Every structure is written in structure tokens, then in C-alpha cells.
């Protein structure tokens, strides 16, 4: 094997694929990147057996072949080279790396030992704008559960329904749902993508990427983005029927400035009780104010008020301020809405003028 490519192209390709390569005592080759030079194409591949990333790199193939070397070491080394042409050559089961002023040899392992990355055969391909998908994933993925006893909520639920994609995530304490409009009609499908795959996908999506292609088979999914292909297993099982916990009625509805409320909550959070992160929200319709307070016997107490449009009855509720902030920070509008029933029922948070994002948060019971 012998190939030539620029430092920039090789560094970018290694950056896209090397992240999932990790040390594995029982299977050391999982820490390696496979370099393939075949039919004029240069491909870089890594896998952790749960997912795999394949990236094509522009360059010149002088001799076909394949080999694997440690992904992190190669990536770190290439990043430190000047921006010039680099030659990679397989000589006596070692990878020779030549640049204008450097010569390096890396030991590796035969490509034949590298695990196969599953191919996803699908009759239909779904397309979505890269920027839309990345923003939508960011708006829900923080709410995914890491409780391994409930694997069905260890990922983001994708629900394709004609010209909409609905994304949902929950950890039983809060729920985030985001609706994305599609340019083209998609087949009706629902499946759960593991959170580690979502994190990797968010990392490799270039927001300037016009379209992301998605292919789904029975238990595998493939995302094609930014010159890279990410394939992953899907989580088996039925996603919870979360629609039934979204409140359809409320006794108190509040409209207030989003950024001001974020700052109000952050100030109060400095005086929360350690471990509980509790802040008290009081809704006062007559005064047209919301009061936000926290009390810590060791530190002190704080209360702030903020002007708000309040419809309905006087009410109060205690939230985990971290959960509340995570929802608020994903509302892109200047004003947000909070709907409350009682201090023991979940609250609903959403943008004022749009129903494409809904955030449900369970209260801390007094």
C-alpha cells in the first residue's frame, strides 16, 4: 500500500473517525484505524462493535492495500505536521509516514483482523438538512437516561411521520420533544438510536452540510454526513408512550422573557440546598409577577421577582434548577410559556409562538 494526500485532508478524516476508537484489552484492534487504498479511493474506518465510522479522504493511490494502526497516535501525529503532502507506505508490516522534513514508522496490525462494519441495506433513503438535525438533537439529547436497567430510554426516539420528524428523549424526570419539518415525505418509521451514536453524529455533522442521508434496516441505521458514514445498531424494545404524560390542561399559564428568566434562575441556584438543586417558583397573577427563591442554611437565601403575563390562579411549584435551565436554554424565542396545574403535577415549558418544542419537567414534591 502506498498513498499520498495533504496533511489537511488526512487530519480531517482522522478527526472524524478516531473518536470512537478506544482501548480494549480483549480486542486491541478496536483502538486502531483501518486505512484502505483501493480503486483510487482512500478510506479510513474505525469501530467499537456498537457503531462504526467510515470516511473517504481525497488523495492519490500509488499502490493498493490496507493496514491498521493506533488511531489516536496517528491522528495526534498528523495534526502536528506542517500543511504539506504526506506519503503513507506499508513496508514489512509497518506504516512509513513521510513528509518533507519527517520520517516516522508506526507498528500496526493486519487489516484482515479488523472487524467488519455492518452494511445497511435499505430500499428508501430519508434526507434532512444537517443544520436542522444537529439543532434538533441538541434540543432533546440532554434528557436521555443513562440508567442501564431501562435500555429503551438510553437513546433518542426518532418518529418519522410523512413530512415530519419527531425526536423525543426522557429520563423519567423530564421529557424533551422536538418537531422537525422535512422537505420531502418520509416513510412512517419509529426507532431508538443509542445516545452514544447521537453524540457521535452531532460531532461529525457539519452545519454547512446541506443534506444528511438516513438509511434504516431492521436493527441498524446509517447516517451519511460530511463525507463520513456513521452506522450503528438500534436499541431494541418499545419506546414509552410519552404523549400521555404531556399535560393537556393547566390551571396557571405564564408568559415571560426567556433570557431574563434564565438569569433569574441562575442567581437563585447559587443558594440551593446541596444535592437537591431545588428552587421555588411562585406565580402571582394579581401582581403580574413570578417570584423565584432558594434557601440554604449554610449559605443564605435569595429571592427575585420578574414581570410576567399570568393567566389563571395563583400557584407555586418546586423544580430542580438544572433541569429547568436545560429546557430554557433550548428555547430560541425571546419569550417562553410555563403551564402549571398543581405543585405535584409535571410542568410544561415551550416557546410562546411555536409548538415545535415541548419540555416537560417533574416537580420536587414538598
Structure description:
- The structure is a single chain.
- The chain is of the alpha+beta class.
- The chain folds into three domains: 2-113, DNA Polymerase III, Chain A, domain 2; 126-243, DNA Polymerase III, Chain A, domain 2; 246-361, Roll (DNA Polymerase III, Chain A, domain 2).
- It is 17% helix and 46% strand.
- It is built from six helices and 24 strands.
- The chain has helices spanning 7-17, 71-79, 130-140, 195-204, 258-269, 321-328, and strands spanning 2-6, 32-38, 41-47, 51-57, 60-63, 65-70, 85-91, 94-98, 103-109, 126-128, 155-170, 174-194, 212-216, 220-225, 228-233, 252-257, 278-284, 289-296, 300-307, 309-312, 315-320, 335-340, 347-351, 357-361.
- The strands form three sheets. A 13-stranded antiparallel sheet has the order 5-1-7-8-9-6-2-3-4-15-14-13-10.
- Strand 8 (94-98) and strand 9 form a beta hairpin.
- Helix 1 runs antiparallel to helix 2 (71-79) and helix 5 runs antiparallel to helix 6 (321-328).
- The mean pLDDT is 93.
Any idea what the radius of gyration is?
A: 25 Å
Give the mean pLDDT. Answer: 93
Taking the sheet with the most strands, its summary is:
13 strands, antiparallel
CATH superfamily caption of the largest domain: DNA Polymerase III, subunit A, domain 2
- H and E order: EHEEEEEHEEEEHEEHEEEEHEEEEEHEEE
What shape does the CA trace take? Answer: elongated
SS content category: alpha+beta
Strand arrangement, major sheet = 5-1-7-8-9-6-2-3-4-15-14-13-10
Low-confidence stretches: none
Q: Provide the number of structural domains.
A: 3
Q: Number of helix segments?
A: 6
- CATH top level of the largest domain is Alpha Beta
Number of DSSP strands?
A: 24
Overall CATH architecture of the largest domain: Roll
Fraction in beta strands: over 45%
Question: What's the CATH topology label of the largest domain?
Answer: DNA Polymerase III, Chain A, domain 2
Helix coverage percent: 10-25%
What is the terminal-to-terminal distance? 68 Å
Amino acid at each position: 500500500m502506498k498513498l499520498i494526500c495533504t496533511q489537511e485532508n488526512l487530519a480531517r478524516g482522522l478527526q472524524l473517525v478516531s473518536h470512537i476508537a478506544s482501548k480494549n484489552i480483549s480486542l486491541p484492534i478496536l483502538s486502531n484505524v483501518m486505512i484502505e487504498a483501493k480503486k483510487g479511493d482512500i478510506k479510513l474506518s474505525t469501530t467499537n462493535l456498537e457503531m462504526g465510522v467510515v470516511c473517504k479522504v481525497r488523495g492519490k493511490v500509488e499502490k493498493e492495500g490496507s493496514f491498521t494502526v493506533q488511531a489516536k497516535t496517528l491522528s495526534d501525529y498528523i495534526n502536528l505536521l506542517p500543511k504539506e503532502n504526506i506519503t503513507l507506505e506499508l513496508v514489512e508490516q509497518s506504516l512509513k509516514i513521510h513528509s518533507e522534513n519527517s520520517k516516522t514508522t508506526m507498528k500496526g496490525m493486519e487489516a484482515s483482523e479488523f472487524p467488519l462494519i455492518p452494511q445497511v441495506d435499505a430500499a428508501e433513503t430519508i434526507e434532512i438538512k444537517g443544520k436542522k438535525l444537529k439543532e434538533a438533537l441538541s434540543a432533546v439529547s440532554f434528557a436521555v437516561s443513562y440508567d442501564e436497567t431501562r435500555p429503551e430510554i438510553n437513546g433518542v426516539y426518532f418518529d418519522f411521520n410523512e413530512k415530519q420528524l419527531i425526536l423525543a428523549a426522557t429520563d423519567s424526570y423530564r421529557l424533551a420533544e422536538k418537531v422537525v419539518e422535512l422537505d420531502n415525505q418520509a416513510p412512517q418509521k419509529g426507532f431508538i438510536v443509542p445516545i452514544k451514536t447521537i453524540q457521535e453524529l452531532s460531532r461529525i455533522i457539519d452545519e454547512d452540510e446541506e443534506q444528511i442521508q438516513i438509511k434504516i434496516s431492521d436493527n441498524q441505521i446509517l447516517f451519511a454526513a460530511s463525507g463520513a458514514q456513521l452506522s450503528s445498531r438500534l436499541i431494541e424494545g418499545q419506546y414509552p408512550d410519552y404523549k400521555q404524560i404531556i399535560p393537556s390542561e393547566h390551571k396557571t399559564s405564564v408568559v415571560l422573557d426567556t433570557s431574563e428568566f434564565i438569569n433569574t434562575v441562575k442567581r437563585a441556584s447559587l443558594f440551593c440546598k446541596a444535592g437537591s438543586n431545588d428552587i421555588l417558583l411562585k406565580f402571582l397573577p394579581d401582581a403580574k409577577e413570578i417570584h423565584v427563591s432558594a434557601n440554604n442554611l449554610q449559605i443564605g437565601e435569595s429571592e427575585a421577582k420578574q414581570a410576567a403575563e399570568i393567566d389563571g390562579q395563583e400557584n407555586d411549584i418546586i423544580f430542580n434548577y438544572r433541569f429547568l435551565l436545560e429546557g430554557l436554554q433550548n428555547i430560541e424565542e425571546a419569550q417562553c410559556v410555563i403551564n402549571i396545574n398543581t405543585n405535584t403535577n409535571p410542568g410544561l415549558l415551550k416557546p410562546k409562538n411555536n409548538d415545535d418544542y415541548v419540555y416537560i419537567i417533574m416537580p420536587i414534591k414538598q
